[in-house]
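Re: that chain you flagged

S.,

Sorry for the slow reply, it's been a week of failed gels. I finally had a moment to sit down with the sequence you sent. For the record, here it is as I used it:
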Amino acid sequence: MIFSHKNFHKQLILQAQHTSCYHFNYYIPKEWQLILMNDGSLTQSLTSLTGELANLKVVEEYSYKLIDNIRKTRQVWLEDYKSNKLALAESLWPSPKKNQLSNHKPIGQSFIEYQFDIYKDIHEIYYGYCSYLENIFNCQGPIWGRKYTIYYQKKRLATLREIFAPEVIDFFSIQRENNIKFTEVNKEYV
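Prediction finished late last night. Pasting the structure tokens below so you have them in one place:
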């Protein structure tokens, strides 16, 4: 396993089901709220922020048996076009449903292609430190993450944990700068 969540030292854990919006507004910066509370495709969100397709790099995938159930786990890096690591995602599949999805595509993209109507139940939003990830992300300081379960036809499909590079929110300011430049250019033609 490339990364174990045991090495992530959580400083703040918000249980999403039992926390009011006030707690999210108080503890979580607005840019991070848009990423952490988003119930859409993470890959699509990263693509929208960076302006480029987010790439998926499968780091590890394995199966193991628990009593009479085979579980599958996959860890992937989501990267920008320059191979900068934007997020580490780990998915746990308690059933063979994963076999229907592409191993080399982001999960959200596969759901869209197979027209799976899913529901995302966010369990935790956390903030903490991990020297391993700080080194990989080439940054010092706190890192945000989340844990959630995806349901399909009212049945648990997978549980995911995602940890985000701190630089992800920098793309919000880049987008603002690009929008301002675009607006200024359009004013000249009006």
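What I noticed first: The longest helix spans residues 170-189.

Talk soon,
D.
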